[in-house]
Design goal:
Elements lengths: L1 H18 L10 E3 L5 E3 L5 E8 L6 E18 L7 E16 L7 E8 L2 E2 L3 E4 L8 E6 L14 H13 L3 E4 L11 H19 L4 E3 L16 H6 L10 E5 L2 E5 L13 H13 L4 E5 L18 H13 L4 E4 L5 E6 L2 E6 L17 E8 L2 E8 L4 E7 L7 E6 L11 E5 L5 E6 L17 E9 L5 E9 L14 E4 L9 H25 L1
Parallel strand pairs: 9-10, 10-11, 13-14, 14-15, 15-17
Antiparallel strand pairs: 1-2, 3-4, 4-5, 4-6, 6-7, 6-8, 9-18, 12-13, 16-17, 18-19, 19-20, 21-22, 23-24, 24-25, 25-26
This protein binds fe (ii) ion.
Fe (ii) ion binds next to loops.
């Protein structure tokens, strides 16, 4: 009896934790130990993912990380409730990479990752469509925390990720600056990058993400690159090269590294030679190039890819020569789209980091939806309230766009300096007119008088249609262009004939006067 009571107490004590929920009940599968004997496998704890990566029109790579070495299985299929295909690997690993092959083009696949009997939720992704068929790309970035002391990812970034998930894109490109700083402390770096991947993996469940390296994502400035954290956050082609290219749905993607050690803010040397070969050797007619730093910054003027004007112009010329459709960047925490001689330059840097307010606007948190189909591209900048803030369509068939950008010598004193003008296509003819004066084919410096000056800029396209923009330059405001007071401009649509040259007017008046005099003289003689 006493023995029976003791046994009952012991049995109750054994069951108590189960009732209290103190013991985790998990389906466990036996795994084969290296020696060949069967052991009971520990339940899996998913540290990362699963995410879908390197998606083509017939393949994908599923990645996830467990907190201990375990086996790997991915069940997948075309129906959410019928994951009838399986790929397994009995080798126990912490980083699981399972390749799926033989997938159907332009299809939605459902998948579930399993390690040691513990399964993830079921997620889905889209395989690439046929070359030239329609697909949706999302571009965003510069989500980094505002300080290194409190490296919490901005709530705006998390909210944007939710909006991007709802877009169900085919592919995502991120434009850099994912963390505030990479330090000498391994534990700090692990912490800040985990905060980033905890958010991006939510998106990575559904769509492949490719990212360019930002200046905040490396400690190159202190002498050590420490790119291992960046590469750990993404599954990309040609790792550990920080620049690479790939084709997707007939579009050639090239991701560059603007943060070369000792050469940040430059695309030069070996990388530039590689870029020339890359853009030359591709047979794809549509080419998208990305880097963290823009060619035409609005905030980081002369401290982005424009820090060396010769190299900047060389890159622009290369993009024109190779028919690059889009150059996407971040670095400036804003949205901007500037078309220069047919090349669309887009800054998508409003991913959550503190916004930059410049005279050109665009200071709102956003992602950019890029709808691509054969020969056509639609760019839509969408803010945190899901409001469309900018829309632009290729092919563009409007009048030449004329945009003013930074002052060539970046001085705060405007007198004697020149603004920089860019045209959306190479104009057949350009005319400039200061303060309503005569037209000139060359732009001279600001007038000396310290007042507000107008500058009319006229551009004629290949079909003899004139575009006209009037810019106001406040030469006594020493803070422009860093001031938030914008230089105002107006656009004249319709037939923007250039103003008549004063000498031309004099000539016409002279000719008419001469004709009148001759007619009067003839009449007088006849009388
Ligand atoms: Fe940056």
């Amino acid at each position: 009896m006493r023995r029976s009571v003791s046994f009952s107490i012991a049995f109750a004590l054994f069951l108590l934790p189960l009732f209290l929920g103190l013991v985790e009940t998990t389906t466990q599968n036996p795994v084969i130990a290296p020696e060949g004997s069967f052991i009971e496998a520990a339940p899996a704890h998913f540290v990362r993912g699963p995410t879908v990566n390197l998606v083509t029109n017939n393949s994908a790579l599923i990645f996830w990380r467990t907190d201990a070495p375990m086996n790997s299985t991915v069940d997948y299929g075309l129906e959410e409730l019928n994951l009838n295909l399986t790929v397994s690997n009995s080798t126990v690993v912490g980083d699981h990479r399972i390749a799926l092959a033989g997938l159907a083009m332009g299809s939605t696949y459902y998948y579930q990752a399993t390690s040691n009997g513990t399964a993830s939720d079921v997620y889905c992704f889209k395989t690439a469509p046929a070359d030239g068929a329609e697909f949706k790309m999302i571009v965003f970035g510069d989500n980094r925390p505002s300080t290194d002391a409190a490296p919490v990812q901005p709530q705006e970034f998390s909210d944007l990720v939710d909006l991007v998930i709802a877009e169900r894109p085919h592919i995502v490109i991120m434009t850099g600056d994912y963390v505030h700083v990479v330090t000498e402390s391994h534990s700090y770096n692990l912490d800040v990058w985990e905060r980033f991947t905890n958010i991006t993996d939510r998106l990575g469940h559904y769509v492949p993400i490719y990212g360019v390296l930002g200046n905040h994502d490396t400690s190159a400035y202190t002498g050590t690159l420490r790119l291992e954290y960046f590469f750990d956050a993404f599954e990309m082609y040609d790792e550990p090269s920080p620049y690479f290219s790939f084709d997707y749905a007939g579009v050639h993607f090239t991701l560059l590294n603007s943060e070369e050690q000792y050469d940040n803010g430059r695309i030069t040397g070996t990388q530039y030679d590689w870029l020339v070969d890359d853009l030359t050797n591709t047979s794809r007619s549509m080419k998208f190039v990305f880097a963290h730093q823009p060619l035409y910054p609005l905030q980081h003027i002369t401290s982005a890819l424009d820090r060396n004007m010769t190299e900047m112009n060389r890159l622009q010329q290369l993009f024109e020569d190779k028919n690059v459709t889009l150059f996407g960047a971040g670095h400036d925490h804003l949205f901007d789209r500037l078309t220069v001689n047919g090349v669309v330059h887009m800054i998508a840097g409003g991913g959550g980091a503190p916004l930059y307010h410049t005279p050109w606007g665009g200071a709102f948190y956003h992602y950019v939806k890029v709808d691509v189909s054969s020969g056509q591209v639609g760019f839509t900048a969408i803010d945190l309230s899901s409001v469309t803030r900018e829309q632009y369509q290729l092919p563009y068939d409007g009048p030449i766009e004329i945009e003013a950008r930074f002052l060539a010598n970046n001085t705060l004193k405007l007198n004697g300096t020149l603004p920089q003008f860019y045209f959306s296509e190479n104009p057949a003819e350009v005319l400039y007119s200061w303060d309503g004066g005569s037209n000139s084919t060359t732009l001279t410096g600001f007038p000396d008088e310290p007042i507000e000056h107008t500058l009319d800029v006229y551009a004629r396209d290949s079909e003899d249609l004139w575009s006209h923009e009037r810019f106001l330059f406040n030469t006594f405001n020493p803070n422009w262009p860093s001031s938030t007071t914008p230089p105002t401009s107006t656009t004249t649509n319709g037939p923007p004939a250039p103003p008549m040259d004063f000498t031309l007017v004099l000539g016409i008046v002279g000719v008419i006067s001469a004709v009148v005099v001759i007619v009067l003289l003839v009449r007088f003689k006849r009388k």
